[in-house]
Design brief:
heterodimer; A: mainly alpha; 16 helices; globular; B: 68 residues; 2 helices; 0% strand; elongated
Chain lengths: 310, 68
Amino acid sequence: MQLDIVILFFLLGAAARLIKANIDFPKGLYQGLTLFLMIAIGLKGGIALAEHGNSSLLPQSIAVIGLGIVLTLLAFPVLLYVGQLARKDAASIAAHYGSVSVGTYAVAVALLESNNISYEAYFPLFVVLLEMPAIVVGLLLAKEAGKKLETGKLLHEVFCNQGIVLMTGALLIGYVAAEQAHTITPLFKTLFHGALALFLLEMGMVAADRLKHLKSSGQFILSFGIATPLLGGALGCVTGHLIDLSQGGAILLAVLGASASYIAVPAAMRVAIPDANHGLSITASLGITFPFNVMVGIPTYIVFSQWMAL
Amino acid sequence: MPKSHAYFALFVGLVLIALGSALLSHGTTGWTLIFLGIGLPTLAIISQQFATPREDILIPAPANISND
């Protein structure tokens, strides 16, 4: 499978950082692109929900939330007992891997569209749903025996983080004002791939920056960052086929299962578990899993889904 | 590095090699997975070799040094 053009920008960013080329990517531009991608994804999903929403969405949504919980619970004991990490670190990293990466999802969508593989257009609803459960489970796992959990803080982190607010808001706007969507789709639809390419340019540089932390993180985190996406991808793909998603939908659910959050969950964990080792979780999710998924994982999940469909 | 980490890396490597072998007909994805599958356990073994103190190169502790 040929590398998609947006992935080539990721490689460009990584190569530029490795040869120490001085590319000054404005922080504001990166934040703007992140906002743009989240809104574009949510909006597209809301419009599709208004056009194609049906009763099968409820059991599918429940299954997707269940996937997020299961992935977090599978990752935690591996981190705690095999990796021998502290409980808080294991819970934080498990929450990252139980949640989703909007960037990885956007790359997968671009790949499916360029390979003419159709998928459910309301899929962004599942992206929003899968953001949340891992944060809750991660905080519950990190809670030490005898200590009280701050429910207010927990709820705020689950429902008020940037990703949830923007994507849910855009989803609702797309759903409510679908007939007016043509006035803004020139921006959010036509420019999507270009914005994604620029976003991945910065992500390539950031991922290359994290490589130097691999030495201190150790062999376990490197292996975990590659094995867990494969397991999550397989579970996501199986779940997708079980809930009667199309082949493209099963691929996207595999990608969501395989991805690890590096925007919403790190921010939530920094507030909720401030003394966890956040550098370790970012190195795993951004330095290892994100590049693995973008370059190798997504094509693998596409093939896996095609096998399952046979 | 604890042995459990090395065994974990080896297990992941074997899975990657198996998956890569199955995907060889799909171009670079298969070869990349095989490469990762060989590289991961190799890195784990090498890093464990360097982390483990080797008795034959340790300098014996000096005898009690007098301050005279």
